[in-house]
Amino acid sequence: MLTWVMYDIKKDRTRNKVAKLCEEAGIYRVQYSVFVGDLNNAQRKELIAGFIKLINKDDDSIYIFPMCTEDFKKCKLLGQAFDKDLIADEVKALLL
User: Fold this and answer.
1) For burial by CB atoms within 10 Å, which of 35, 65, 67, 92 has the most?
2) For 26-58, how does the pLDDT look when each residue is reduced to its tens digit (9 = 90+)?
3) 3-state secondary structure of 91
4) If we measure between CA atoms, which residue out of 57, 3, 67, 95 comes closest to residue 21?
5) How far, in Å, CA of 96 to CA of 68, rounded?
6) Minimal CA–CA distance to 65: which of 88, 30, 36, 26?
7) What is the pLDDT of residue 78?
8) Residue partners of 36: CB distance under 8 A and separation at least 6
9) Distance of alpha carbon 79 from alpha carbon 47, whole angstroms
10) Angle, nearest 10°, between helix axes 41-54 and 12-25?
């Protein structure tokens, strides 16, 4: 299932570790603090467990949105699409 991860992490080191976990999970950066990719339930739970170990619950936030293709097609984009320099061909294939 398509999974979006969006975060606001206070410390650079923690933020970098969260981004690395996302990359290791096989999801792709589409903006500086936004990743998207195809994850099954077990992969999503593993990623969440990794996040829980890293973040400071008083300062940081991470949103994880599982989304089916049907719901994704209902999304509306306002303004500019993803930063074309950040997205990989794999993301384009997922979204386009």
Assistant:
1) 35
2) 998 888 999 999 999 999 999 999 999 999 999
3) helix
4) 3
5) 14
6) 36
7) 82
8) 2, 3, 4, 5, 27, 28, 30, 91, 94, 95
9) 30
10) 170
The two structure tokens encoding residue 28: 């792709």
Contact 40, 16 (CB under 8 A): no
Tokens of 11: 């410390």
Report the SS3 class of residue 12. helix
For 36, the token pair is 């998207």
Instruction: Give me the phi and psi of 65, to 5 degrees please.
Output: -120, 105
Write down the pLDDT at residue 57. 94
Coil, helix or strand at residue 83: coil
Gap between the Cα atoms of 57 and 72, Å rounded = 29
